[in-house]
Backbone:
DNA sequence: ATAATGTGAATGTCAAAGAAAGTCAAAACT
DNA sequence: AGTTTTGACTTTCTTTGACATTCACATTAT
C-alpha cells in the first residue's frame, strides 16, 4: 500500500538521522533491501533529495561504486526561504509546492500552520477556475509572493 | 431513492467523524464502494466539500495516488474566520481582502504575520499574469482557500 | 617497468507500462 | 433550468527493465 518512493525516502532519511546528516549507500544493496529495481533508488534521489530541497548527492560508478547523500548545512530560516525563492521557476506544480513546504517545516523555516495556509492558497482547488496551463504559472506567483510575505518585516508591511 | 451525491457526502462525512476531521481516501475504491463512476467522487468533492464550506481537499495522482479531505475543527475561536468565508462571494478585490485581514487581526483571529502571508498570496502582484477581469475571481478562491487552511487542525493536514 | 587492454562491478539514462486522479461534455434526472 | 450521472479521454506520478557508461583492478604486450 505504501508507495515505494515513500519507503525509500524514509529509509534514507533514517540513515541520515543516524549518521549525522551524511550517509554512503550502495544503490544495489539498498534496492535489494527494499525490494525494488536499482533505478528506483535513482528516481527517489532525483525527485526527493534535490539540491533545492537541501541535499547534496554525489556518486561514483564502477567497482566499489557508491552514492553519498548529505544534508546541506542548515541555513537560517530567512536564508532558507530566500534560497527557496531562487529555486522556483516560472511554474510550480502542486506537488512541488507541497515538498517545498514540507522541507521548510522540517527545517523550522516556518510552522505547520503557515505552511497549511500557503498550501491552501496555491492548491489546485484555489486555482480551479484557471485554465490548467495557467495554473502552475499562477501558482508559482502566488507561492513566491506568500513566501516573500514571510520575509517582510511585520511592522512594515502593507496592511497597516 | 437517495441521490448518489447525498450518499457519497454522507459516507465522507462519516469517515471524517471517525477520523478526527481528516481522512485520506482512494477515489477508485470509494467509487466502487458506493457503486458509481470515479468522476462522481470528484463531482461531490467539488460541489460539497468546498473551502466556502470549510473544507480543504488535496490530491495526488499516479500510483498510490490519494485524496485528502480535511474539515475545519469547530473551534469557537475560528468561528469568525468561518463566518468570514461565508461572506466572500465569487470575486474579491485587493481592498476588500486587506480590510478582511485587518478585521481578522483586530479580532485576534490571526496574527499579523499570517495576514501578511495571505495578503501577499492574493495580491495583484501575485496575480499579475492574469487578465485583470479574472483577478478578483481567482483572488476570491485563493483567499478562501488560505483562510480555510487556517481552520484545519495543523496536526491533521496532509503536509506531513 | 610501463602502457595498453580486458573484465566485472557498480551507477546512469531513458522510454514504456502501469496506476491513480482530473476534465469535460453529453445524457439523464427533478 | 439546473443539477446529477456517466464515460471517454487526459494528465500526473510511479515502477520497471533494457541498455549505456564509468571505474578499479587484473592481465597482457612492448
Residues:
Amino acid at each position: 500500500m505504501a508507495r515505494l518512493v515513500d519507503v525509500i525516502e524514509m529509509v534514507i532519511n533514517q540513515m541520515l538521522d543516524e549518521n549525522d546528516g551524511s550517509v554512503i549507500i550502495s544503490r544495489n544493496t539498498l534496492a535489494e533491501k527494499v525490494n525494488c529495481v536499482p533505478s528506483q533508488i535513482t528516481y527517489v534521489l532525483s525527485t526527493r533529495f534535490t539540491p533545492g530541497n537541501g541535499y547534496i548527492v554525489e556518486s561514483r560508478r564502477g567497482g566499489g561504486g557508491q552514492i553519498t547523500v548529505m544534508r546541506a548545512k542548515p541555513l537560517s530560516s530567512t536564508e532558507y526561504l530566500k534560497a527557496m525563492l531562487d529555486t522556483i521557476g516560472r511554474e510550480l506544480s502542486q506537488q512541488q509546492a507541497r515538498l517545498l513546504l514540507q522541507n521548510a517545516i522540517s527545517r523550522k523555516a516556518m510552522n505547520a500552520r503557515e505552511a497549511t495556509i500557503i498550501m491552501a492558497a496555491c492548491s489546485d482547488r484555489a486555482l480551479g477556475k484557471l485554465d490548467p496551463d495557467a495554473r502552475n504559472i499562477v501558482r508559482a506567483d502566488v507561492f513566491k509572493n506568500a513566501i516573500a510575505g514571510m520575509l517582510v518585516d511585520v511592522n512594515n508591511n502593507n496592511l497597516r
